[in-house]
Write a structure and sequence with these properties.
Largest sheet: 11 strands, mixed
Low-confidence stretches: none
Pfam families: Penicil_amidase (PF01804)
Radius of gyration: 28 Å
Shape: globular
Number of helices: 24
Number of strands: 28
Strand order of the largest sheet: 1-28-2-3-6-7-8-9-18-19-20
Structural class: alpha+beta
CATH topology of one domain: Penicillin amidase (Acylase) alpha subunit, N-terminal domain
Helix content: 25-40%
Keywords: Calcium, Hydrolase, Membrane, Metal-binding, Transmembrane, Transmembrane helix, Zymogen
CATH class of one domain: Mainly Alpha
EC number: 3.5.1.-
InterPro entries: Ntn_hydrolases_N (IPR029055), Pen/GL7ACA/AHL_acylase (IPR014395), Penicillin_amidase_A-knob (IPR043147), Penicillin_amidase_dom1 (IPR023343), Penicillin_amidase_N_B-knob (IPR043146), S45 (IPR002692)
Distance between the termini: 62 Å
Strand content: 15-25%
Cofactor: Ca(2+)
Mean pLDDT: 93
Length: 792
């Protein structure tokens, strides 16, 4: 009897567990988006049809613009609301309200900029047309959220409920991209000031020279000659002790920068008299992907036919084609932030908290921000502000004012309709200047076969911002002209004689155009140069040729480092480690392939030489400013090559007798790091080190979630200084090749799938094409599902 009761008990427990699992599964499935049937949406003036293809890519057809925007908000919300929620909270500094104590420090830093206040002020300044579209989008988002039979899975795990969307939230998503794509802390300005404070002028000029041996702007305009190698009178590094030469300490190795590639060829070089555009935006990769594929069709007098990628949380298309014009972006790395040295001033009336400004003084304002913390106590944080931006303290006694493009009045808007309706390059370039977005290089291609470049986003009219090699301006002297550069004065190049355009985050323009954009820390131009060279290796291109450049994994930057590595081998005595290093480097095939064992060694050797060559010159800065790192000062290659060519003995690390010995020391550091002296240690391949593990934010919580939420890790070709950018979980967040008017011949790739729901068949679908580089269509496929949205 007892045994029978125990069996019943165990069986009952098993049944209970099974029922709980079944209920949980049904509950989770209830939050999957609608795909078929009909649903009534408040605010619609006429029915809207949403078709989805086999990969879940929607085509939305409407007769009214606001209805089209409202339906796109509905679709975004259904598939990606948690992503939208985290983006708006990222822009506002409100993550702790969702994630608890773990996000307090993040919010504390973001709240310095008072993001929600900025967004609400920007909302008030929108035109009536922008406000109407944003209102329609917001209504659609909330209708889509309400249409889910259950809240999205992430909110069950967090034991909370999603909060409704507000109109200002879309502007906060835009602000989140400003945070991601620009230097809101003005770290480059700080590092240049620290260098100016500690280094002799000769050394400073040498290290901050903007020239790049790989330079490949779209308009050839060489920089002036490199300043000479510093003299022994300026600096003698042989007297230093404890010189830091570790590249990770000095400039954090070769971490990838947020960037992108794009290029275009005119009709003279394209297929069948068509111009072609290629673009791949490089971001941190996670699930769901940053972008959501979308096609928007508007009938009637104001016809639109937009295809491309959208950013959930904002209406419209980010990059794509409207049938007349196609466009793609890369991060511009212009001068979008600076620092000002604050001068405190106490007026005669003894009122506290003033600062000096041109013509007198002004009070420092104090803003209080309340950080809500889920499961914890709220935090009240106070931030001092000036007319130019917030005040921050440095590691010393200085106070700096941060001046940032993203916080200037007018930086945020929703003025995208002009670009969507543009019929040619002139209309598109004018519309691009009005966009309230982080300033980007935009390449445009029109259906007439012409190509062009300009800056998309607002360019500030700068005053006396800090210049390289100069100390920070004082608040009593700082001038911010205010306002924005008129569209007519924007830098641009339309219809170039060579019929080709290319940008990849390095310097694009020269002369007066470069002054307008500024230098916010351009990376080395190796990737941009390789793309340019590929474009001049052919006289005709089709879509497959453009994709081949996107997948180009040849590492041309390292070609000049092979003889230096072999010189180091010859200069040193033979050891097991050096022999293995020699064999691997000598066998290297010139590509960043996963199976290569020579590539990671050669890559690390270049970094080690950079560290040993520049560490002694930076020693005075590190002594004066222990928090210093050179990462925001990105152009190191030309300085290092000059040192290796001139070989000044007074600039060597104390432990190296000559520059040949420096190469040997750098090689030995790599050998030690890889454990090559131990013959039992296997050589590490590039694929073992460069593994791509694309995860959902919750995918690391436990093994079960990891299995359901994450993609299978993969070893992929590529790196950061060649066209196929792939370094760990950083890489191409999409690839597209398109010709406006012939979108059906275009190509598209995206990591992950359309849906943000792990139970959706579209959570991973399409990822294999991105991973393998297999060509897949730019446009959605044939409709497999039809959803009717009706007025309520």
């Amino acid at each position: 009897m007892v045994k029978r009761i125990m069996i019943w008990g165990v069986g009952g427990l098993g049944l209970t567990v099974a029922l709980l699992i079944a209920v949980a599964y049904l509950l989770l499935r209830a939050s999957l988006p609608l795909t078929d049937g009909a649903y009534s949406v408040p605010g619609l003036t006429a029915p809207v049809t949403v078709y989805k293809d086999a990969q879940g890519v929607p085509t939305i057809k409407a007769a009214d613009l606001d209805d089209l925007v409202r339906a796109s908000g509905f679709i975004h919300s259904q598939s990606r609301f948690f992503q939208m929620d985290t983006l708006r909270r990222s822009g506002a500094g409100e993550m702790a309200a969702l994630f608890g104590e773990v996000a307090v420090d993040f919010d504390r830093e973001r709240r310095r900029w008072r993001g929600r206040a900025l967004a609400e002020q920007a909302l008030e300044n929108l035109s009536a047309k922008e406000r109407a579209m944003l209102g329609a989008y917001t209504e659609g988002v909330n209708a889509g959220l309400e249409a889910l039979a259950a809240r999205p899975p992430e909110y069950w795990l967090l034991r909370t409920r999603p909060e409704p969307w507000q109109e200002a939230d879309s502007l906060l998503v835009n602000l989140a991209m400003y945070f991601y794509l620009t230097d809101q802390r003005a770290m480059r300005s700080l590092r240049m000031a620290q260098m100016a404070d500690a280094l002799p002028s000769e050394v400073l000029a040498f290290l901050l020279d903007p020239a790049d041996p790989m330079d490949a702007p779209i308009v050839e305009e060489p920089y002036p000659a490199l300043p000479p190698v510093p003299s022994v009178e300026a600096l003698d590094t042989r007297q230093f002790e404890d010189v830091v030469t570790d590249p990770w300490r000095l400039f954090r190795g070769e971490e990838p920068l947020v960037g992108s590639n794009n290029w275009a060829v005119s009709a003279e070089l394209g297929p069948d008299g068509r111009a072609l555009l290629a673009g791949d935006m490089h971001l941190g990769l996670s699930l769901p992907n940053t972008w959501y594929r979308l096609r928007l069709e508007l009938d009637g007098e104001r016809q639109l036919n937009l295809s491309g990628v959208s950013l959930p949380g904002t209406p419209g298309i980010i990059a794509g084609s409207n049938g007349w014009v196609a466009w793609a972006f890369t991060n511009s790395y212009g001068e979008w932030s600076t620092r000002v040295r604050l001068e405190r001033h106490e007026p005669d009336d003894d009122s506290p908290g003033h600062y000096r400004r041109p013509g007198g003084s002004a009070p420092i304002e104090e803003h209080e921000e309340r950080i809500r913390v889920r499961g914890g106590e709220d935090r009240l944080v106070h931030y001092p502000w000036t007319e130019w931006g917030p005040v921050v303290s440095t590691a010393g006694d200085d106070e700096h004012v941060l001046v940032w493009n993203g916080a200037l009045s007018g930086a945020l808007n929703m003025d995208f309709l002009g670009l969507y309706q543009a019929r040619d390059l002139e209309e598109a370039s004018k519309a691009a200047a009005a966009l309230g977005m982080p300033p980007q290089n935009i390449l445009m291609v029109d259906s007439a076969g012409d190509i062009g470049w300009t800056i998309a986003g607002r360019i500030p009219r700068r005053g006396n911002w800090q210049q390289p090699g100069e100390p920070l301006p004082l608040s009593s002297e700082f001038q911010l002209k205010g306002g924005w550069l008129p569209a007519a004065d924007y830098p641009r190049l339309l219809r170039p004689d060579h019929q080709r355009l290319w940008t990849a985050n390095a310097r694009v323009a020269g002369g007066e155009d470069l002054k307008k954009v500024g230098d916010g820390g351009y990376p080395i131009a190796a990737r941009q140069r390789q793309i340019r060279d590929r474009l001049f290796e052919q006289e005709s291109f089709d879509e497959a040729d453009m994709l081949a450049i996107q997948l180009d994994d040849e590492a041309r930057l390292l070609y000049e480092w092979v003889p230096l590595a072999l010189e180091a081998v010859r200069a040193g005595e033979s050891t097991v480690g050096r022999d293995r290093f020699h064999q691997a480097v000598a066998r290297w095939h010139g590509h960043a392939w996963p199976e290569s064992t020579g590539y990671p060694l050669l890559r690390d050797f270049r970094q080690a030489v950079h560290g040993r060559a520049l560490g002694p010159l930076l020693h005075p800065v590190l002594k004066a400013h222990p928090d210093f790192d050179m990462r925001p000062i990105l152009k190191r290659e030309r300085a290092v090559r000059s040192l290796l060519e001139v070989q000044p003995p007074h600039l060597l690390p104390p432990e190296d007798d000559d520059w040949e010995a420096l190469l040997v020391s750098a090689m030995d550091a790599v050998i030690d790091n890889h454990g090559l002296e131990n013959s039992d240690t296997e050589l590490v391949s590039w694929g073992e080190r460069n593994r791509v593990e694309i995860q959902h934010p919750f995918g690391s919580m436990n093994p079960l979630l990891r299995r359901w939420l994450n993609l299978t890790p993969a070893a992929l070709p590529g790196d950061s200084n060649l066209p196929r950018v792939q370094l760990g979980n950083f890489g191409a967040s999409q690839r597209m090749v398109v010709s406006p008017g012939d979108e059906q011949s275009g190509i598209f790739h995206m990591p992950g799938g359309q849906s943000g729901h792990f139970l959706s068949p579209w959570y991973r679908m399409g990822h294999d094409d991105w991973k393998s580089g297999r060509s897949s269509p730019f446009l959605p496929g044939d409709p497999q599902y039809e959803l009717q949205l009706r007025p309520k």
